[in-house]
C-alpha cells in the first residue's frame, strides 16, 4: 500500500505495459526551470505558505497551505502540483543526468548502463519513430486479423496476459488486458510465490466511467467512443465508427461484471483458489486450456482468483460476443498500449483523451521527462542503483533508521496500552512489528536485466520485450521461495510502500529529502512530515488489509472475536467520517474505498506524534516563528499534504484512488487530542470533534 496517490499514471501511455509502474506523480517545469530543493534555505515549516486568517479548527488545510494555494498555478503539463513536485523534479533531473552519463560510459554492450542509454535514446529519437510509421505495429495487427475462431481468440487473449497488476503493494487493480497476473507470496503459503489473477479489460480507469449515470460521465463516454474511432482510423482501419461502437459496448458489458474498487480492496473476498477445472466449471465461455497455453501457464495448477464473479462474467462475454468485435477490441487495446511509442499522431490523440478530457491537463509533460519515466518503469533498478550510489548518503540512512526505530517503539507502546485488546492479540501484533523488515534508501540486492534485450533504434520492440521480460520473470518465480527483502519501489521514487504479504516496508531514498526530511530542520518538523509517513506505512501492518495477515504474512485471523468487533466498529466510524467529505457538491469521498489509507493516516500521525515527544526526552521544544514544537509538528504534517489539483483529475482521484484527496488527508489531525489542545479547537469550529467522536484505532 503506497503512501501517495498515483492517479496520473493514466496519462503515461506505456503505463499499461509494465508491471512495476510507480512513476513519480508530479514533475512540473522544464528541467532548467526546476528548483533544486536541496538548496532551499527554509529548514522547517514555511510560514509564507500558510493563511493565518483561517482558524486551524475551521479548515486546517487552508490554515497550513492557504498562502501557497493562493499563489500557485498548476503548470499546463500537470494535473496536480503538490508538496512533492519540486522533489520529483529534482529526482527526474538527477535521473536524466545519470542517463546522459550512461550514454557516454564505456561499459560493455550488454551491461545495464548501456541498456539505460539505448532505451532512453530510442525513445527520444522522434524522427526515427515517425519514419517507421505503422511498421512496428503491423505484424501484431496482422496476427489479430488472422484469428479464425474462438479457440484462437482464447490463445491470443492468453498471449496478451502481463504481470501488470498489484493488489496489495503498489495497489494497482487496473489492466486493460482481459485479466492481469500478480505474482506474490501466497495467501495460503506465504513462503512461496503464488499466481493471483485479477479482473481487467477496460481502457478507462474504472467501471464507474462506463456505468455512472450523470452528465459528466455520459459526456466522457461519448468522447471516448470518438477517441476509439480515431485511434482505429490512425491505424488504417475502415468503418471505424461502427467498430468503435461495438468495442465500447463490449467494455460496457465488461464493466457491468467488474467488482467496485472498494470491493476489490477487501482481501477477505479475494482468497479463492481455482484449479484449471474450476475455470471450466465456474467460468464457462472462454477456452481456458487455450488461454493458459497462450499465457504459458499450462503447467501452473492453481491460481488465486481475486474477483470470481468478474471471471465468470467476462468469460461468458467471450462466448456471447462476436469474434469480430473481440478482434477489434484486441487491436484497439494493442494500439492504445503502444501509442506512446508510435508516431506523434497516436501519442497526441491518446493524450487528448486520457490527459486532457479525463484529467483536465492541457499539455503533455516534456518528452525528456516522459523518457525518464519510461526508463524508470522498464529499467528502474538499473537506474536506481546509480541513483542510490550518487544521491543517498549513509548519514541520511542512519538518521532515517533512528526515526523508524523511535516510531516503531511508539507503536509498541500504543499497542501495549490498548485497553480493549486481549493479551494474545497484542502478542501477535507485537510479533508483526518484530518481524517487520524496514528497507531504507535502496534494496540490498538489485534486479538482473541480462535477459532483457534493448536495441538502439527500436523503441517499439524495446517496450514490447520489456513487458514480456517482466512477465516471464514473474512466471518463473511461481512456486519458488519468497524473498521478503525484495523491494517494490525504486530508490528514485518519491513515495513509500508497505508490502503486507512480505511484512515489509520500503522508504526510497528520493522521499528522504526536504521538504519531507531535512537533517537541518527541527525534530518537530521531520516527525510531522516524514515521521507521519513512516507511521503511516508501519500502521498499514494493522489496517483493514494488514490486519488480515499474521507476522509471517499468512492470511490468518489472529484476533479474538471481541477485539475484531471493536476494530470493525472503530473503523466503521472512520469510514463514516470520510463519507461526509465532499470533494464536489455531487461527489463525496468513499469512506470504504479509502478506509485502509485513512486508518494509516490517523494511526501514523498518532505514532509519529508519540515518537516526536519521545525524541524530546523531557525537554521543551524550541519555538520557531512564534509556533510551539507541537504546533510545528502539526503544521509540517498539514504542509506535507499541500496540493492543488485540476477538477477533472480530482474527480478521477476520488473515483479510482484508495487514498482520500490531499485536502482531507491534512484534516486527519482532528482525530488527535494533542492537535485539538495545541490549537485550542472549540465546539462550533468546523473540524471540531467531541473527544468521544475522535477515532483512535491504534
Ligand atoms: Zn498507504
Stretches where pLDDT is under 50 for at least 5 consecutive residues are 7-40
Kindly report the oligomeric state of this protein. Answer: single chain
Structural class: alpha+beta
Q: What is the mean pLDDT?
A: 92
How many helix segments?
Answer: 27
Query: What ligands does this structure carry?
Result: zinc ion
Shape: globular
Notes on the structure:
- With 698 residues, this protein is of the alpha+beta class.
- Helices cover 50% and strands 6% of the residues.
- It is built from 27 helices and eleven strands.
- The strands form four sheets. Strands 2-3-5-4 form a four-stranded mixed beta sheet. A three-stranded mixed beta sheet has the order 6-8-7, covered by helices on one side. The protein has a two-stranded antiparallel sheet with strand order 1-11.
- Strand 7 and strand 8 form a beta hairpin.
- Helix 2 crosses helix 3, helix 18 packs across helix 23 and helix 21 crosses helix 24.
- The longest helix has 24 residues.
- The radius of gyration is 25 Å and the shape is globular.
- About 5% of the residues have low confidence.
- Zinc ion (ZN) binds next to helix 21 and helix 23.
